[in-house]
Amino acid sequence: MTPTAALSPDGETVKKDGSSAIGAGRPGFLWAAPAAVFFGLFALVPLVMVAVLSFASWDGLSDPEFAGLDNWRKLLDDPVMIKSLWLSVLLTVLGVAVQTPLSILLGVWAAGHQRNRGVLSAIYFVPMLLSVAAVSVLWRAVLDPNMGVPAQATWLFGDGNLFGKQATAIGVLVFVSTWQFTPLHTLIYQGAARAVPQVLYQAAQIDGAGTVRQFFHITLPQLRNAIITSMILMVVGGLTTFDTVLILTQGGPGSDTTISAYYMYQKAFKSFDYGGASAIALLLVLVSTVISLIVVRLSGYDKMRSTMEGL
Amino acid sequence: MKQRARFSRTVVVGGAALALVLSLSGCGGDSDAAGGDTLRVLVYGDAANKVEKEIVATFNKTSKVKAVLDTIPGADYQAKLQTIINSKQAPDVFFNWGGGSIKPFVDAGLLLPLDPFIAEAPDLKAKFLPSVFNSAVVDGTSYGVPMRGTQPVLLFSNGKVLERAGVEPPKTWDDLLAAVKALKADGVTPIALGGGDRWPTLMWFEYLYDRIAGPELFQKALDGDRDAWASPDSRKALSKIRELVDAGAFGTNYDSVKFTDQGSPTLLATGRAGFELMGSWEYSTQQDAHPEFAKSDLGYSAFPSVEDGKGDRANVVGNTNNFYSVLKKTKHPRAAAEFLKLMYSDRFVKAQLAIGNLPTTTNTEGFLDTAASPEFAKFQYDMVKAAPAFQLSWDQAYPQSAATAMYQSLQQFFNGSMDEDAFIKAMQALPTS
Amino acid sequence: MRKSRPNCFAGFGSLVWLLVVGLPLYVMLVATFQTRPDYAANGPLSFPEHFTLDNYIDDLNSGFAQYFLNTVIVTVCVVGIVLLLVPPLAYTIVRSRGRATTTVFRLFLLGLAIPSQAVIVPMFFVISEAGLYDNLIGVILPTAAFAMPVCALILTGVMRDITPDLYEAMTMDGASPRRVFFQLVLPLSRSGISTIVVFSALQAWNGFLFPLVLTQSAETKVITLGLYDFQTEHGVNTPGLLAAVVLSMLPILIVYLFARRALVQGLMGVGGK
User: Fold this and answer.
1) Measured between CB atoms, which of C80, C125, C233 is closest to B19?
2) Chain A residue with minimal CA distance to B410?
3) What does the pLDDT look like over C64-99, one tens digit per residue?
4) Which of A265, B32, B196, C84 is the most exposed place for a label (fewest CB within 10 A)?
5) Do B255 and A159 make contact, defined as CB atoms within 8 angstroms?
6) Residues 6+ apart with CB under 8 A from A190
7) Does the interface predicted TM-score (ipTM) exceed 0.90?
8) CATH number at residue A229
9) Where does this protein have coiled-coil stretches (chain A) (predicted)?
């Protein structure tokens, strides 16, 4: 890396805000090049390959063959695929619906500076210290129908057949994700709640507004940005859930928890239909791109401006 | 300010240097190991690996080319194998189930025909039971040598539990239904089933189809005759399965239990279930996890007969054997051949018998008394020898690409979320080769 | 004060959540100190009769020490790569006016939308062709690449908050971009840098799919895979399995105990400010 040789070629002398700037002193493209090349090699090149493979028929043993739209046509006719899309959406929506109110309440509550809240928050944070795989393994053990808690708490779990029925299997997946990720979202809201200017509350108190009113009229609106960020994280996370499904349900019973990301893995590494798997993969990318674009729009990340400007 | 800048710089530069050094050292190390004078042997990871380790050690004592054993835990074995077999990381010798499991590799020209070795050393073929050896012959060419034991599926039981409920191992389907009733009344799950794994569920389909329709129906279906699935025999088999499930034979939470994590074997061993239909490896699994139980209370019997069934009650379902196949691009074909010759050595046979496996070599009979449980070994040996037909597991017979859909339908029919017609339709839709 | 009533409600709610979070943690901890027969006989909710550390010792002897080391190597290298590549990138994005830079930034934004599962098939063949299959490098490189978009986003956000006057003052003095970077940008982006360290470290620590598909032997196994294999092979040895889970969280727990502020602040940074 030789940054000194990389003076910006297009030295603009006048900025919009009127202050003058000199071209010299701005970094050139070479500064970004290593990152760009690295990222291109390990993320964009494979992405292009996925796109190409989605039009090929390939089992990994012989050479790939061009198959036109075959994979795509098969996907549209595949009931499991259609079902998997619905399941992905369902799982994501349920995740957002459960986690958002929960983490807002916990976050706002934890934003207070009382001592007991600090201690409890520290405990609430613990699931965050475990990896997704570890959490899934933990819950699989805890929820085992014969060796786990259900065997000791039949009044709550009945026969403990949590992984054998669609409704309960989905319930387990949503619950485990909530257990794992609520600490992260709580933190986001906690940070945002602390940033709400105290003046607003003082003014409200003078007006005689109660805690509940304050929450709905001041806190929630002020958390808008945090809600957007947190929801985006949940949505992208929900759509790409993989470890949890693999370890907890393997997509079962039947194909009842086979969400798209897992179905893609099955197609690729169980059925060795790399072409079909790539088509699903591309679909996943398209869906997340749309979501990403929405984020970018909402948050103004793409405009090169300081986040301070809003204040 | 200045000092902080220096701190940040140190972090950045240090991190970079570290990454670089690590990557260089890591890179260099591995490429050496991959080439060199090693024969990489890849096997299915489970309790039987003990013997494979021993055999590798025996081989390495005399061979200049050293064998290295790699294991991949069961659930992922087939997936990993097919991903790496055509890559640079392919092993030299690998474990498989013969027949359908190696056909795609043969078709892709990846496997080394073993016939030249057999021509040089006829024992490589002559020392094995022909029926077993032949299941790794594809299109007239030998591609595999048997390397573990034959694995018939048996009805295992917990003697204590049966005794308490006054139940005998069932000889007929009606016996089984009566036993289920008695065990249920006694408060235990009649039959342990690791439905979470799905393939244990498959065993019930395999045996019932065999007993009711004989082995021909499945063969027809496999050969592409989709009507076979809709035949009256097929429907009869399905209704028997329904009958058994609805009788509460498997309890209600079988789909949350697995065999691979030892859930269902534990149910059997701890007396919470009376029976388990499982491959002969149940024995080594129990010996490993519950040695006391394996020694004193683990019972076994053949699958019961079904009245008016067309299938012989001596027919067996399971894995005929596991095989070692050799990759065409191995650098050490000679060493591989030498390695394969150990698979009929006395030492190998004894070691397999000691862990409850039943090798299919011609010298096996002479060593049956040295088995971990001589009665168990003799029982299996007689059963396999006398069997008119040995049905290879459906998931091994069908191409890999059918497995996921097959498992899903089996599970859904079994737990009642799919009806007979839908199941038949799903089976008809499976790709055959 | 009118506050007492809602506090009661909040207090109750927080206790319920404490139970939800705490109960499984209790089951986990208690199980690991029990012998296997005790656990099987008494169930997960009961307290150990015979206290034992054997589960931990057995785990460490059966390869978990190695898995640990592998995970640490992966994590350190991923963080190293991210620290090396992302700050200059973010600096360029914020300060450069070239069109190429804008394009690069757009590509990184697109990268946000690529789930790692989506590229796993070609990734396997790229890594395999590069001779890096079953090698930790093969896990490190893609993991680092996939941590980059979010890190770039976080860091550009932070760097944009540096007021233009500061840049100007330095460039007036004739400082080169390199000097501006090391003496102004880096020191003022420390919060952002600690966030990307936390984020990329967590990505690496949590990594599952890349190791699952790109490695196979015990020598290259990372701890998440070790847990998965343990569960698929000996899942019923619950005390041993849960001891492994506890072991897997120890390093982060230690970080948490000693640098709680940094970790929490770092994570808050993931969600923006």
Assistant:
1) C80
2) A254
3) 889 999 999 999 999 999 999 999 999 998 888 778
4) B32
5) no
6) A106, A107, A108, A110, A111, A121, C268
7) no
8) 1.10.3720.10
9) none
